[in-house]
Amino acid sequence: MAEFLRDFIKVLRASDVRISTAEAIDAMRASTIIGLEDKAMLKVSLSQSLAKSLREKEIFDECYNNFFKEDYMNLSSKKDYENVDTSLENESFDERNNDLEELYNSSDKNSLKTSMALASQEVGLRNIRLFTQTGMFTRKILEFMGLEKLNNDIFQASRDGDNNREEELKEIREKIRLEIRDYVEHQLKLRTSESGRQLREEALSQVRLSQIDKSDFVLMSNIVRKMAKRLIALHSRRKRKANRGMLDVRSTIRVNQEYDGLLFKTLWKRKKVDRPKVITLCDVSGSVANYARFFLMFLYSLTEVLPNIRSFAFSNDAGEVTDLFDTKDIETASAETLLLHGGGSTDYGNSISDLEGFIENDIDRKTTLIILGDGRSNYSDPRTDIMKSLHEKSKRIIFLNPEPKSLWGTGDSEMNRYAPYCHKAKSCSSLADLEKVVDDLLRYAF
User: Fold this and answer.
1) Range of the domain at 125
2) What CA–CA distance (Å, rounded) separates 225 from 330?
3) Are 174 and 307 in the same domain?
């Protein structure tokens, strides 16, 4: 019972329900009296102890219903659950029944569920937080339940030439693995997508943008806005300080002579701070489309401190999309950019040549050129001569590549040929990476 309640309270707290130690103790007393058999009465009692506001009661209802979908909480009786809870104390690993074939073929289907619940507690499944942990916990539970013995039985059947038994055991292994994976994925959903928004946002900010599902676009847009707001606050302060300059001691003393040297007025050595000009060239072909979408959203969320942006998108021919972002909301402009310029065979050389034609009268020593893409040009001429010319004319060139550096220069990648003409070439695959790059850009600018 204690283990069940601790786990449930952890889920509620992760879902932004504030629960004090005293409230947790009250909930424990109530659940001890009522038990697990009457789930309706238990729900009402725990709700009285743990959920205070209407919003918290809504969260409680959703978490409670999902929590009781867990297989180990659907065992036939309170005694079954207590057996799971106490078996960790009463049995060692070697003493447990680790015969997966026997468990799977058992007429008592609760035996497999009980064993799964026991293994889940042992490997700490309640601590799962990221989707990347799904495979790891599935494997750990399977190993705890007796994977080694089942693998040995499969190997022995193969040596004996018993193909039917070998295939039967492999099928059992796969079906159990899938059942465990379903269980693990439910746990992950319970503790992330159903849990605290902050936890979900932290996870998504670290995930490779190519892995982001469309269902997460709204949340990702919110994360972009939060990051941009944070950078605006930081760099607006830095810009105000830079504009003020240093104290002009001589002028300050001179202007205060009429006040017998008392410093009623202060004069500063004003520094002229040139607003940076930023030009972006984004590969919006299928393989890197998500990166371009969120990068453009990020940049255009910073117009308060980064107002002079011209943007171009390409797959094979480059086109300007600045007007889209000037006249439409950021999400719509990003989506239309991908629609208008995505598709086609990627050609970096041709696109860089197009870009030069667009900006030849606009690029100067105040211009920062940012290129976003994987540098894979389908073996076409990369036009490094144009990159060299742009390098000489601009303040700096930054090349952001979503691929790890270990893949640069492999296959049709031209990154190793572009890198010498970039002031910075950096692997950048997540929103967290983008935030660091933009932060550095603004620091350098001001």
Assistant:
1) 2-205
2) 10
3) no
Task: With beta carbons less than 8 A apart as the criterion, state whether 150 and 172 touch.
Answer: yes
Of all residues in the chain, what percent carry a pLDDT higher than 70? 79
pTM, two decimal places:
0.53
Whether residue 35 is predicted with pLDDT greater than 60 in this model: the reply is yes
**200 and 310 part of one domain:** no
pLDDT surpasses 90 at 74: no
CA atoms within 13 A on the CB side of 107: 0
DSSP assignment string, 12-36: HHHTT----HHHHHHHHHHHHHH-S
Asked whether residue 139 carries a pLDDT value surpassing 50, the answer given is: yes
402 SS3 class: coil
Question: Do residues 167 and 315 both lie within one domain?
Answer: no
Which position has the token pair 């283990």?
3
User: In the prediction, which pLDDT does 72 show?
Assistant: 41
In a domain, 174, yes or no: yes
Nearest to 306 by CA among 277, 274, 273: 277
Q: Note whether residue 309 is domain-resident.
A: yes
396 vs 277, 323, 421, CA distance in Å?
A: 11, 24, 9
Q: Name, in order, each residue with C-beta under 8 angstroms of 19's C-beta and a sequence gap of 6 or more.
A: 9, 12, 13, 50
| Structural tokens at position 280 | 């972006």
> What value does the CA radius of gyration of the chain take, rounded to a whole number of Å?
30
CA–CA separation, 160 and 229 (whole Å): 67
Summarised one tens digit per residue, pLDDT across range 101-122 is 888 887 666 677 778 777 887 8
Length reported for the chain: 446
Number of H helices, E strands in the chain: 20, 8
Residue 332, domain CATH: 3.40.50.410
The first and second tokens of residue 73, run together, are 């909480």
Does one domain contain both 305 and 432? yes
- The end-to-end CA distance of the chain, in Å, is 59
What single letter denotes the amino acid at residue 90?
N
Secondary structure (DSSP) of 203-215: HHHHS-GGG--GG
Count CB neighbours of 379 within 10 A.
10
Both 80 and 8 in a single domain? yes
Q: Are residues 422 and 292 in the same domain?
A: yes
Are residue 173 and residue 319 in the same domain, yes or no? no
Residues 82 and 15 in one domain: yes
Nearest residue to 304 via CA among 246, 258, 240, 254: 240
The DSSP letter of residue 393 is: H
Domain count, the chain: 2
